[in-house]
Amino acid sequence: MKAVGIVVEYNPFHNGHAYHLQQAKAVAQADIVIAVMSGTFLQRGEPAMVDKWTRTKMALAGGVDIVIELPYVYSTAAATDFAKGAIFLLSAINCHAFAFGSENGAIAPFLNTFQLIDTHRSDYNMLIKESLQTGASYPKSLHYAYTQLSQKFPADYIDLSQPNNILGFHYIEAAAHLKSAIQPLTIPRIAAGYHEPVQQGATIASATGIRKALATTNELQHIQNVLPHTSFDYLMDWSTQHGHFASWEQFWPLLQFTLLRHTSHELTRYMEVTEGIEHALIKAAKTSNSFNDFMEKVKSKRYTWTRIQRMLTHIYTGYTKEQAHHLDKPSYIRLLGMSAVGQAYLGQYKKQIELPLISRVAAIKNDMLAVDIHAAEIYNISVEQQVKHNRLPKDYQTPPIRM
User: Fold this and answer.
1) What is the SS3 assignment for 166-194?
2) Where does ATP bind (predicted)?
3) Is 13 assigned to a binding site?
4) pTM of the model
5) Each residue of 184-221: pLDDT tens digit?
6) DSSP-based three-state secondary structure for 365
């Protein structure tokens, strides 16, 4: 059996995701699809709208055969480390290929782009440093360096201002640095751009557009056309039980308390809190009535919205620089769910999978896994603040979902 890997958040699983995994399976000529999925907190530094077990059910109902968890250490990291963790796990579970969605839609320009940057790495880093010294943000400095190089050595390259192209580049970079034999493939995104709102009558929308629509109306019927019916049903169940979807706006009182209970010096212990921003975080927390109000006060030319959200995630979950220093590559694969075909694959290739496959974690002692379980507990407490009678499943007690 051949497996193709995909890197997902499924926040939530929508029709575009269904198309992507069908195309990935076809293009890779694979028998099964394995998804490495972020847990309760995501790469843009925000809580997932529903927990990972609900999103695992959506994935399995949508056609994924095996869902494994991307540890918190990677799922909340910048693109380079996010990609490194994901590709490491997909390689370890014996995927022969991985497929990612992109605005470009062709693999050759990605390979050309990686070759350009890898060959001229020292010049690239010098150009980044040069741009940062002007006060530009890190993403803008990356784009400046890339533009300078691509103009000097013209060829067919990707547009690295597009979010999915950026991630795709880092997946290929990660596979090369890991010396993995896993084959990169890309599927063109269709119909909806990354940040586009949900269009009336559309059947494809981005996850960002779906979340914005729900934040505006809180009416699931407005997004029903862009979701598989199973995803819609799972979201309806969540909404009925919990009354709201998880977001920083919902978590704001707890986040505000977390910020204000620290001194500015104490905040510097946490990942990504650097360069004196701790003072601005506390100052804004004292005078903000909402998360959006807080963010508008803190974001700047140097600190992007996403970068600030990631540092807030680490403060909220208590993930420190000292912890990060001691956590290297994953030493396990955590199984979240599988179909019957996925179970057959694991049975057939168990001896060829490079890492221990963990299904029950209660008795496992592992520092990286402990960070995941702690983050899930923080998430659950935050969701349950106003809905005490509907308890979310304890992460360390929950077995993989079989579907």
Assistant:
1) HHHHHHHHHHHHCCCCCEEEEEECCCCCC
2) 7-20, 101, 164, 189-190
3) yes
4) 0.93
5) 999 998 755 555 667 777 788 889 999 988 887 767 88
6) coil
